[in-house]
Design goal:
With about 100 residues, this protein is an all-alpha fold. The chain is built from 4 helices and no strands. Helix 1 runs antiparallel to helix 2 (about 30-50) and helix 1 (about 1-20) crosses helix 3. The radius of gyration is 14 Å and the shape is flat.
Length: about 100
């Protein structure tokens, strides 16, 4: 259960990061509200998951999921660069997250 919640919280980190970008410095109400709600849910889920998962592993996995998710949304939906080196680096992050879970 803790790992499932950690993954969901990592995905919510992607949501709040994109909403933060779209809020234009908190000048747009809807993205600002989405940011606030997803931030609280993401942090709450992380806190709950850390009751069973060591903080070093849990936080690294949470950040990794959020970072990869945010970068993918940027590349696929926001027209950011999708160069081979960037994709390779994201694959290294994914490998690190999988490794942390595997060696937990």
């Amino acid at each position: 259960m803790a790992w499932t919640l950690l993954v969901i919280s990592g995905l919510l980190e992607t949501a709040w990061a994109i909403a933060l970008d779209r809020s234009a410095g908190f000048t747009r109400p809807l993205p600002s509200a989405v940011f606030a709600v997803t931030l609280v849910l993401s942090m709450g889920g992380l806190a709950y998951a850390l009751r069973e998962i060591p903080v070093g592993t849990g936080y690294a996995v949470w950040v990794g999921i959020g970072a990869v998710g945010t970068a993918l949304v940027g590349m696929l939906a926001l027209h950011e660069s999708a160069s081979l080196p960037r994709i390779g680096c994201l694959l290294l992050v994914v490998a690190g997250v999988v490794g942390l879970k595997f060696f937990h």
